[in-house]
């Protein structure tokens, strides 16, 4: 937390008249990282937010950070209730909120959607005013102190289909829009499978890795570099919260973890018999898997085109080459070296956005570089 | 690689006269990321560096980035040879370099030290001019294109004890110093155990996680957030290189991976029987393990002191509190909320460097905040 930015919150776009009419006022129940951040985003957009938490100190801190007010709402006026409590408590708190705020739509932000909906159905709750949702944002930190109105900007936010009237869904969509997130509609079971794959299982792998560090002699830990820190960062997460998330989604997680155990067993066997292919194969599979992840903001990577330049056999020439590419105002998206048996020097392959390649080629040729067509 | 910085290299400190006398000129064999970065650091310090690579295109690119020259050295003048080739090739290349550069000290940078030394001993090589070493730096990228003279700054760099004359060791220490790294001497076996713990096993766990992503339906991948990206970042590493590293250190790695499999089996059983303690216990163990990692640069965290402030029950007060702490010029190292059954509002615990706490307490009291003593 060193260097934490405590400067005042930059306001996002104010709510439109329609958004204001859909949402104002909102009650947020549970002022941990996610609840407090939602409060901050809505407050910054001009929506009145009432904060509730079983720990008044959390609600006060969230309020102090700009997430809303700790004063009570007029129950019948509330348009939207956001339930941001730990997963185990969600069904009960949603049920109580539906009863208390008779004209409000109630959403929750739990990381697992089908068990919540099943529990509400089992309890016989009328689900026309309930819409489950899940913002794909968070961090290894918990509690309101690291809240930010920008936590959800450009992140995916899932709305779970299968409950809620059209009007109810619209209100939650307005919430997602005001938080700056990118909306996805998913069936609850599809959501739960997807988060097991891309969130819960990676969390467990991180924790398994980190748990072994307890056995490492402290001097050995001095050799830790950025790699192990990245792998274990999410292992710093809250055990109670994650215990509940994983338990709630255990069927999906079990299936996927069993597949990993099979991969691990295969690797152990390969290491035992010193079969180099077992190791190289796993690392290659991992590299393939990581390249399947979409670009940072969930965009499919934009189309790239490649300009291939003969590598100059003269000192300083390459630095000049890079300087000229930059002077063209073109961003280099990727660089690689190609060996060519017929040419000792080989080629440098420069990937740029497709729209820029032609102009770059013309400019490079004009400057005397040898391009491969 | 988007936004890659192609601006000219900032020069580190120039070599001292003693360092210059110890090292100039250097031959770097193998101009991948590590070899090219060493070349860049030494060249920037004013040392003459001759680059060699089985792929001339790599050496040319490294030279173009400022790592040295592709022209040949006068063999008898060379003071230090850095062997930065893939692990499997290291013993043979070291042996040839010792024969070719008769007055040079030869070091290697392979990630595993005992097998290299054993292979050289077995080949009957005189080890008085050989000193094994290992800079704890690198990335998921390979090849010279991502080389940087700053790659090793503040990173640990191990010198493996058990070979090399005192003078030979001094030369490699001069190399470490010029690269800006932090020196550690370790026995080869201790080094290999430590890197298995903090590098090779985390790499495997990252690859195991990433390999499963190949089976994930592409729409599910849209839900991927920062967590899975962090866990799988090093899984982007080069399969051939890592296959060799892991195979070379397989005995240590096997022991540690078997312990992880036992943890995984226990978790699978707990999930199968819906034992919440199995999950919470693992996440808690992981959190404990990750907190055992030393601070970012390997310093033990500096001593902190805590100032405990009653949380103000008034809107906007907390923002004012933070502003006042910042106005004191004190960096907040950590923040947490303490519940207190006797006080509805609770306390905010503000950790600052030990030397700053007293002045902060005085200033806060003077401004009217309620502190807990």
TrEMBL record, chains A, B:
SUPFAM superfamilies, per database record: 6-phosphogluconate dehydrogenase C-terminal domain-like (SSF48179), ACT-like (SSF55021), NAD(P)-binding Rossmann-fold domains (SSF51735)
Alphabetical list of InterPro entries matching this protein: 6-PGluconate_DH-like_C_sf, ACT-like_dom_sf, ACT_dom, NAD(P)-bd_dom_sf, PDH_C, PDH_N, Preph/Arog_dehydrog, Prephen_DH
One GO-annotated biological process of the protein: tyrosine biosynthetic process
Taxonomic source organism: Propionibacterium cyclohexanicum
Catalysed reactions listed for this entry: prephenate + NAD(+) = 3-(4-hydroxyphenyl)pyruvate + CO2 + NADH
Domain Prephenate/arogenate dehydrogenase intervals: 24-301
Keywords: Amino-acid biosynthesis, Aromatic amino acid biosynthesis, NAD, Oxidoreductase, Tyrosine biosynthesis
Enzyme Commission number(s) of this protein: 1.3.1.12
Gene Ontology MF: a single term: prephenate dehydrogenase (NAD+) activity
Residue ranges occupied by any ACT domain in the UniProt entry: 306-373
Protein name, as recorded: Prephenate dehydrogenase
Pathway where this protein functions: Amino-acid biosynthesis; L-tyrosine biosynthesis; (4-hydroxyphenyl)pyruvate from prephenate (NAD(+) route): step 1/1
Family: Belongs to the prephenate/arogenate dehydrogenase family.
Pfam family, one: PDH_N
